[in-house]
Amino acid sequence: MDELVRWLGEQLDEDERIARTATQGPWSVDSGEYAEAIYAADRTTAVVAGGRWGGEASVFESTEDALHIAAHDPVRVLREIDAKRQLLTTYEAAKRNSELPHPEFVQGVYPPAVFVSGYASALEYALRLLVLVYGDRPGYREEWRP
């Protein structure tokens, strides 16, 4: 599991690098009906642009494609990376604490170690689900699949 945590951290670092060097968002589509451009927050910088008229084909197969791209701008990607890193941090803390007695967690109902190790196991499963997103990247291991 340590390798999965390390590798996922590397993927998040790469996603962050790309998001931080991209044109900053939030991004928006010029039109919800006939999208021809996606603009940065200043509405003067075109992140993606093309025309439907005058013999040029649109750069988008559909307006929904443009809306999808704009919805996944660098601002959102960075929020997702932060949330995933918080999950990694929470897992690492739960794993460390699973070996320590925590009587304040469960007042005599279950042994504290069972509660904490179950929490760590649930977080491990969540991390295995997260790495599925990166299954097409070098270094992904099928054994990490939940």
Notable traits:
146 residues; mainly alpha; 2 domains; three-stranded antiparallel sheet; 4 helices; 6% strand
In short:
The protein has helices at residues 2-21, 63-71, 74-97, 112-131; strands at 28-29, 37-39, 46-49. The protein has two domains: 1-22 and 74-146; 24-72, no CATH class.
Q: Strand tally, please?
A: 3
Largest sheet entry = 3 strands, antiparallel
Strand pairing plus helix content: what structural class?
mainly alpha
- Evaluate the radius of gyration: 22 Å
Low-confidence spans: none
Q: What is the overall pLDDT average?
A: 84
Count of domains: 2
Looking across the biggest beta sheet, what order are the strands in?
1-2-3
Distance between the termini: 12 Å
- Portion in beta strands: 5-15%
Shape annotation: elongated
What's the order of the H and E elements?
HEEEHHH
* Helical content band: 40-55%
Number of helices: 4
How would you describe what is shown here?
- The protein has 146 residues and is mainly α.
- It has two domains: 1-22 and 74-146; 24-72, no CATH class.
- The protein is built from four helices and three strands.
- It has helices spanning 2-21, 63-71, 74-97, 112-131, and strands spanning 28-29, 37-39, 46-49.
- It has a three-stranded antiparallel sheet with strand order 1-2-3, with helices on one face.
- The protein is elongated and about 55 Å long.
- 12% of the residues are buried.
